[in-house]
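Residues determine shape. Next comes a sample protein:
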Amino acid sequence: MQLLDVAQSNLNSSQQQLALTKQRFELGSARKTDLLKAEVRYGQARVDVVNNEAALKNAYLSLKNAMGIVRTKRDFTINDDLLSLDTIPVFENGFESIQKFNPSVLAKKHQITNAEYSEKIAKSSRLPNISASANYSGNSEDFQTLSNEWDENWSMNTSLSFSVPIYTGNTLSTTIQQAKLNVRKQESEYLTQLQDLSVQLQLILDQLNYYKEVIPINEKVLASAEEDLKLVQQRYSLGSASILEVLDAQVSLVSARSSLIRSKYDSMIEQASLKAILGTLDTDL
């Protein structure tokens, strides 16, 4: 939306410049080529506004579709404020957060734990199997006798069995070996995942530090471009500057505004990416 505001501001400036150039042309203090250049610049500014309006509409519909409300009456509001950069963490603290909170890392840790349990279960199949049983039974012609004379009519049997898996072919060994390999596989994937995430983290931190340095520069460039346009317009109204100088100053101002907005938006995207990789996108550390 802010890029549309920039385009609209540029259109207003181009319209004012066109009106001034027409006035000077009618007074004979401006050439026909100056008027044509101002008209071209105004037309380009109008096209830029139309393009930005279309881009905003497409982005709005795409977001509604992603939210699943494209064919409903539900709507949303967008906070278009460009926030300042958060404190950029050092790599070590960020990597520690990844290991503690990143959802994919936590899921992989659970997979390793499950694989280790499966290995223990497979190994337990080699252990001896001990089982015991006991039963208590009674025998009599009538229930009254059975219930009164417990010692004579009742008997107790117990049994104890002990089995050792001597030979099971290759099935048990294969199962244990597969369980071991699965543990190693999960551990290897975990280390690879951490390595990949550490690289991603470093890239994001580098980008954030880049924006931390570039955004203030873009702000200074914008201030200079605004002041330059004012001075050139004043000189043009006095006849001491050409229309090309005015148009160049307008282009520089639009470029400076757009660059600042894009750099701020890109920094916000990188901040969201940082929170996502740290596992703190929806929570505060």
Observations:
- The beta strands are 129-138, 154-163.
- The chain has a mean pLDDT of 85.
- The first strand starts at residue 129 and ends at 138.
- The CA atoms of residues 17 and 38 lie 7 Å apart.
